[in-house]
Design brief:
mainly alpha; 3 helices; 114 residues
Length: 114
């Protein structure tokens, strides 16, 4: 009986949480469509008129801006991953060196921490 009552309380929360998660999912096409709409709105706000060469140039600049931002984000992610890997290795090495020092103090042959 207690499990049924608990389930009645929890199930609506889980359902809403699931819907919230799914609503955050967008296809690549949907994100690109929204980006083009935003670019178009930006270019119109800059004073260009749809169908003109200025508008086309503005749209290209907006795409280049987005592409550069994606490259910067990817490079930052790579740098963060590399830093994390280096930090993990440093922590491992420091722990090994600490254990090797304990082994030396006990008169044992210390481990190799390379």
């Amino acid at each position: 009986m207690r499990n049924k009552t608990l389930w009645k309380l929890v199930s609506p929360v889980l359902f809403i949480a699931g819907l919230t998660i799914l609503s955050g999912c967008q296809s690549t096409e949907e994100r690109e469509r929204i980006a083009r709409q935003n670019d178009s709105q930006t270019c119109i706000e800059f004073g260009t008129k749809l169908g003109t060469s200025e508008y086309s140039e503005c749209m290209l600049r907006q795409q280049e801006r987005r592409d550069k931002a994606a490259l910067v984000a990817a490079e930052l992610q790579r740098a963060y991953s590399e830093t994390t890997k280096n930090n993990i290795e440093t922590v491992r090495r420091l722990g090994c060196e600490r254990e090797a020092e304990k082994e030396r103090k006990r008169g044992e042959k210390p481990r190799n921490c390379l």
